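At this stage, I wrote out one protein's amino acid sequence and its backbone structure tokens, and that material follows here:
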Amino acid sequence: MNWRLFYSPLALAERIGRHAAGRRRLRRLRGTVAADLRSAHIDTLELLDLVRLEASPPVAVIYDLGANAGTWTALARAIFPAAQVHAFEPLPAHAEKFRQRFASTPGVTLHEIALGAKSGEAEMNVTSYSDAASLLPLAKASRDYFGLSQGPQVRVPVTRLDDWRTAHGIPAPDLLKLDLQGYEIEALRGAPDTLRDARFVVSEVSFAEFYVAQPLFTDVVKFLAEQGLFLHALGYNTPAGAPLIQHDLLFSRRRSAL
């Protein structure tokens, strides 16, 4: 218990407001495939709502790049229940959890590969928190800020997304989600055709180098703008008046009319 809250009515009101807002956001997911998600899993809820409102025609195909155990795929299907989802996750432990979660969910397909600019194989750097695994090695900021440490390496297949799409006859995405732990631009270099097809992109971006030589916020914004995708909205937990660390952004083919 933070007793200082009782001596600061404004701070107490803000805490109560945040708690109420969090419960309200989770209630929206009741009765959906995402009903078991926690607050930490739904940072992009409002971004997906915005896509749902603005997309014309409606979103029919979604790609989840860096699907992990499927929490974001579940959130996306809660907002777009009729959409087809193609998820990409190379780590066997994560892929197994994904398969279990969606075993009886039609319209969700898992591709157990990593994505890059070239096809082949690479070592995935698994960390003490496996969700932070990356094809890039950890940088000092990950150890200092998140307390991560380097774990074992797992060899995974890597392919160009455009090549995989062609080989497997996967339809073009309306919405593309990126959470590749610093490997976002490298994966997109292998997907110029896919990126041209996408109308919306949701991407995690970093404002510090948590992986060696990873692209930062300005690099991602510049790269996507060159492909005709422009920064459109900030995720729910983007702070005001505080340092930016890692946050979710929505990019759209249409520049804002405001």
